Amino acid sequence: MTVYAVVGTGLMGRVIARDLLDSEPDASVVLSDRDPQRLRDTAAQLQSARATTRPVDLPNADDTARGLLRSDPISVEGHDVIPRAVLLAAVGDGLALGAAGDTLAMRVLVDGVDRGRAVRHMFELVDHHDPQLGDSAMARTMGFTAACAARMITSGTLEARGVRFPEQLYTGERFETMRAMLGAKGVSITHHVRDNP
Fold this sequence. Notes:
By secondary structure, this protein is of the alpha/beta class.
């Protein structure tokens, strides 16, 4: 049985945990978060006996990275392991892009009701490695999106202050602005709406 640890049970953590549970019937997920209420809420939403919770107290994100990259042995279920060696053995060569680089493809399906009609919105994002600059598709997509947000903040298009989820910020015309800015960089985002019986 594979046991996955999902640290952070916000939007992405919930999606990751749900996908792991849905796609791997023998897998279990240990959810960890600093926010005990969000941890309980996420576990309740997953409705799976294969999802367990473990609250954590991480003063800052750097402690997590140091923990995964530390070279001194720690005890896990009675065995001494070196976290950095385990991490490299688990992901090692899988992180190498190789000559072909990478491609990022994402599809988001949103079912809902629009003016009394059941509809499905489908968003698809596709990007590719830039061989000239050596930028991975993931770095491009995230970096261009952050740059887009910075430009939108400085232009006054995004006026919200504090930490916000992208889906709170990029709605309506702001989404179209972001999509156009990413499109100009070669990051394709398409949006289709269809009836959803």
